[in-house]
Amino acid sequence: MKKILITGGAGFIGSCFVRQTLQKHPDYQVINLDALTYAGNLETLADIEKNPNYRFVKGDIGDKNLVDKLFAAGLDYVVNFAAESHVDRSISGPEIFVQTNILGTQNLLEAARKYWLPLLNVAETTVPRYLQVSTDEVYGSLGLAGYFTEETPLQPNSPYSASKAGADLLTRAYFHTFGLPLLTTRCSNNYGPYQFPEKLIPLMINNALTDQPLPVYGDGRNVRDWLHVSDHCEALDIVLHQGVPGEVYNIGGHNEKENIYLVKLILRELKKPETLIKYVQDRPGHDRRYAIDAGKMAKCFGWQPRRVFEQGIKETIQWYLENQKWVASVKSGDYQKYYERQYGK
Ligand code: NAD
Ligand code: TYD
Fold first, then answer.
1. Which of 290, 235, 226, 232 is nearest to 253 (CA)?
2. Is the separation of the CB atoms in 128 and 77 below 8 Å?
3. In sequence order, which residues have a C-beta less than 8 Å from that of residue 176 and are 6 or more positions away?
4. What does the domain layout of the chain look like in residue ranges?
5. Distance separating alpha carbons of residues 344 and 212, to the nearest angstrom
6. Pocket around ligand 2: residues whose beta carbon is below 6 Å from it?
7. Is the pTM of this model over 0.90?
8. By three-state DSSP, how is residue 280 classified?
């Protein structure tokens, strides 16, 4: 059996990838390493936790001993999702972003250097592979026209995107310096089930459902390129297995929407009035527009998103309606305190 370490597998995208991997590769043993921060929740994986090919390990990607032990036991694949992922939190407290996203990634890369380097020139050994899951936000902000390609210079504007760019650059450097089999993907904004309700779409759905104001930053005309989480995960599986080490692959939906369009769509779907919309102070350094050119994924692998946004967003809204218990569970505790700091009581 092949062994795959998935870090951050109790989060939004990582959990989708864990589920997809167990389904798509029944001959893989999946290890999910997750620190269970406020954003990680094992209830998200309740449906697969008894799968004999799945094992959960609670721990930090920055924990040297633990990561060493996992690599020492032999790994064929590593996919690193573990991260602090929310821009607003990176503005109120950047340090943990540097710690997890940069130092944590470096710890994984060091373990790969220690355990994988000796394997590289051994005949008849299957070379393992590491995939760094990154974001289009490392490219900075676009004006009205143009797209991010893999050649766009990195110009991160928030502590979150700067820390992700730092991790990308370390991944690049460990490939160039040590020749390790490392790959990087940069994806646009994801939507779908199990997204933590501090991010735009689930936050707006939940506020609308409970008749709370919908806080729209600035003029609401910032643009994001939305991709269904399962399309992202399918693309990651392809890059992990077929990508060329050292390469970067952009993943996106060619599906640009202004925030205010999404907010109004959610209100319409839930039959709630637009009077719930509340324009609030803009996010400092708020990137205006993200848009991915995913031409390389199409050219190299024939990859295209499969989900149609109009259908996917309806299903996502329906999922949140039917899974209020999950929402209540992840919103308890730490998240509630964060919400009050960010938006007041
Ligand atoms: P998330 O915040 O929902 O999940 C992050 C997971 O990582 C959580 O389960 C958390 O417990 C875990 N974690 C945090 N710190 C850890 C640590 N030190 N050690 C081990 N586990 C830790 O995030 P997400 O939206 O699922 O994003 C996953 C990855 O994809 C991130 O690297 C993010 O930068 C990237 N990404 C996200 C998007 C998006 O739209 N959400 C888009 C592109 C790329
Ligand atoms: P978010 O989901 O935080 O993702 P990112 O900033 O990483 O793209 O935000 C998506 C967009 O929605 C972004 O332009 C900021 C905006 N936004 C709001 O207008 N109000 C909110 O309460 C949140 C969380 C986001």
1. 226
2. yes
3. 246
4. 2-343
5. 12
6. 87, 137, 189, 199-200, 203, 215-217, 222, 224, 259, 283
7. yes
8. strand
Concerning whether 136 is annotated as a catalytic residue, the answer is yes
pLDDT of residue 48: 96
Distance between Cα 81 and ligand 1 center (Å): 5
Residues 83-110: tens digit of each pLDDT: 999 999 999 999 999 999 999 999 999 9
Instruction: Choose one of 164, 195, 199, 286 to mutate for the ligand 2 pocket test, by most ligand atoms within 8 angstroms of C-beta.
Output: 199
Substitution site in 20, 58, 85, 334 for ligand 1 pocket (most atoms within 8 Å of beta carbon):
85
The H-or-E segment that residue 88 falls in is helix 87-92
pLDDT of res. 345 = 62
Nearest to 179 by CA among 136, 130, 223: 130
Residue 34 near residue 40, CB atoms below 8 Å:
yes
pLDDT less than 50: residues of the chain: none
Pairing of strands 190-191, 214-217: unpaired
Domain 2-343 has CATH 3.30.450.20: no
157 alpha carbon, closest ligand: 2
Q: Is residue 160 flagged as an active site residue? A: yes
pLDDT at position 333 is 65
As beta bridge partners, residue 122 has none
